[in-house]
């Protein structure tokens, strides 16, 4: 049995083109007549309803069971990934936002931050550092807030506990300072009753140190 899809001439297209979902451009159908929404990854397709070739998609009939239609897939089984409705090819580098950069790898994607995640501890000239969003800039920056020390001390004298929720933040504990015996590890954390960044230390011991060999007795 031979099946064919005939293209009618002349073309009869709707006066208003269809409104496509996000990530699906307007393209000509398989007959080259009317504008339609390109099918995206995993969507059904046929001769008339074509896939989005700008994303490297083709109508794949190989994985279609008997009696069912084909679906849009990458050409030559190339791996890809879809992020926010857009398909990226394997190895392609993209930025979902100005703060991160990602790369499509083997059907998934790896991302790295573009903004520095540095830590600023309180200092005498900047006792209350705070990270804020600056209009017109992508990455947040540190600013120094001027607070009345007397009011802060009075508040602490009344109650040592904070009256507002404190979002916990801290770094991982560092490696032990000694390879054997007692040492110490450090981290930066705000998990204290004043919710201020501070350097914290704790004792650690990876393993006991080996015993020193006994000294030989002196021979006269």
Automatic annotation (TrEMBL):
Gene3D superfamilies membership: Thrombospondin type-1 (TSP1) repeat
Primary localisation category: secreted
Keywords: Cell adhesion, Disulfide bond, Secreted, Signal
Keyword Mitochondrion: no
GO biological process, one term: signal transduction
Domain IGFBP N-terminal: 1-75
Family stated for the protein in its record: Belongs to the CCN family.
PANTHER family named in the record: CCN FAMILY MEMBER 5, CONNECTIVE TISSUE GROWTH FACTOR-RELATED
Known role: May play an important role in modulating bone turnover. Promotes the adhesion of osteoblast cells and inhibits the binding of fibrinogen to integrin receptors. In addition, inhibits osteocalcin production.
The protein, known as: CCN family member 5
Gene name of the record: Wisp2
């Amino acid at each position: 049995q031979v099946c064919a899809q005939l293209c009618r001439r002349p073309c009869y297209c709707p006066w208003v083109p269809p409104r496509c979902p996000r990530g699906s451009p307007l393209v000509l159908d398989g007959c080259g007549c009317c504008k339609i929404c390109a099918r995206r990854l995993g969507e059904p397709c046929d001769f008339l309803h074509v896939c989005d070739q700008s994303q490297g998609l083709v109508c794949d009939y190989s994985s279609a069971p008997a009696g069912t239609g084909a679906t849009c897939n990458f050409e030559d089984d190339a791996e890809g990934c879809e992020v926010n409705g857009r398909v990226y090819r394997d190895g392609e580098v993209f930025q979902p936002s100005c703060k991160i950069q990602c790369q499509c790898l083997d059907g998934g994607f790896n991302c790295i931050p573009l903004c520095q995640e540095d830590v600023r501890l309180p200092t005498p000239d900047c006792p209350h550092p705070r990270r804020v969003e600056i209009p017109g800039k992508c990455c947040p920056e540190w600013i120094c807030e001027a607070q009345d020390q007397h009011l802060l001390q009075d508040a602490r004298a009344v109650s040592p506990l904070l009256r507002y929720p404190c979002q916990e933040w801290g770094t991982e504990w560092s490696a032990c300072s000694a390879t054997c015996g007692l040492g110490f590890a450090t981290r930066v954390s705000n998990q204290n009753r004043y919710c201020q960044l501070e350097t914290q230390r704790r004792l650690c011991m990876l393993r006991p140190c080996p015993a020193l060999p006994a000294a030989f007795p002196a021979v006269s």
